[in-house]
Design brief:
68% of the residues lie in helices and 6% in strands. The chain is mainly alpha-helical and 159 residues long. The chain has one domain: Winged helix-like DNA-binding domain superfamily/Winged helix DNA-binding domain (Arc Repressor Mutant, subunit A). Strands 1-2 form a two-stranded antiparallel sheet. The longest helix has 34 residues. The protein is globular, with a radius of gyration of 22 Å.
Length: 159
């Protein structure tokens, strides 16, 4: 028969409780940090002639290359009609263009124009400057540990 100490952390249930508290705290912190970054990112966008959905569309197009509006709507979690309206506005602003697919003329793809690439780069630089100012208060070793841990979590979250 095993005897258990009454000390905190001495039995299996307290380990589970500690783990649960860690998960709760990490989830809260991730959600909060994400919310602050998103809010600050939107605030930065106010200095540019672009909306958050347009910015997200440019990011997807930059990441994936030319995309159909259907594919883009799926990536952005938007209805097809909403994505079409978004692309129409972006096209009028000279950020993107529609092009016929070279191998199948029935397919229309959206591509980023130079103005869109330049605007995306400026916004990303502004956002990274903001984040760099925040991270200045975190010692380099802790930043490196954070990057390593987040890479592991990112890898585990990929399906």
């Amino acid at each position: 028969m095993h005897q258990h100490d009454d000390k905190p952390g001495s039995n299996e249930n307290s380990d589970v409780l500690q783990f649960d508290q860690t998960v709760i705290e990490l989830e809260d912190l991730f959600r909060y940090v994400s919310s602050v970054l998103r809010r600050q990112g939107r605030k930065i966008l106010e200095d540019y002639d672009i909306t958050p959905p347009q910015h997200n569309a440019l990011i997807q197009l930059h990441r994936h290359g030319n995309m159909t509006i259907g594919d883009l709507s799926e990536e952005l979690y938007l209805a097809f009609s909403t994505a079409t309206d978004l692309i129409n506005r972006m096209e009028r602003n000279g950020l993107v263009a529609r092009e016929r697919d070279a191998s199948d003329r029935r397919v229309v793809r959206v591509c980023i124009l130079q103005k869109g690439e330049q605007l995306l780069e400026e916004v990303i630089i502004a956002r990274r400057k903001y984040f760099a100012r925040i991270l200045q208060a975190v010692p380099e070793e802790e930043r490196n540990q954070l990057v390593s841990s987040l890479r592991k979590i990112d890898e585990l979250m990929k399906f």
